[in-house]
Amino acid sequence: MKSYKIYIDTPTWDCEANIVDTSRIHRYMKKNGHKNIDDPSKADYIIINSCAYIKNQEQKSVNLFTKYNSLKKKNATIIMYGCIVRINPKLIETLDTYPIPSKEGHRLDKISFV
User: pLDDT band at 1, cuts 50/70/90?
Assistant: First the structure.
């Protein structure tokens, strides 16, 4: 299995579920032989663990997408994980991202890096 460089971020550290999911994603990637890195411009996959329970957090999630979309390598993929995918799917459809709703982390298994 090929190893990939993964960058993970979240717009909020105030949500306990978001913190737990981010930690699980980190462990999942490491367990599957991938490297969690600190530089999004060098990542093969950028995972945004989104929030959208209030408009302010939804906008922060979109801002992270915009930021990382401009920084990412040409062939890198942005995965939008979490609440925003369920709460505002029409918005997600406008972004060049691979969406995974919260509570569906098992869908990470279907991505080519696993």
Answer: low
- Class of the CATH-defined domain 5-109: alpha beta
Pick the closest to residue 61 from 26, 86, 36 (CA basis).
86
Phi and psi at residue 38, to the nearest 5°: -105, 0
Residue type, 89: P
- The structural domains of the chain, with segments of one domain joined by +, span 5-109
pLDDT tens digit string along 45-81? 999 999 887 888 889 899 999 999 999 999 999 999 9
**Contacts of range 9-14, beta carbons closer than 8 Å, 24 or more positions apart:** 9/40, 9/46, 9/47, 9/48, 9/49, 9/64, 9/68, 10/48, 10/49, 10/50, 10/51, 10/82, 11/48, 11/50, 11/51, 11/57, 11/60, 11/61, 11/63, 11/64, 12/51, 12/57, 12/60
**CB 53, CB 84: distance < 8 Å:** no
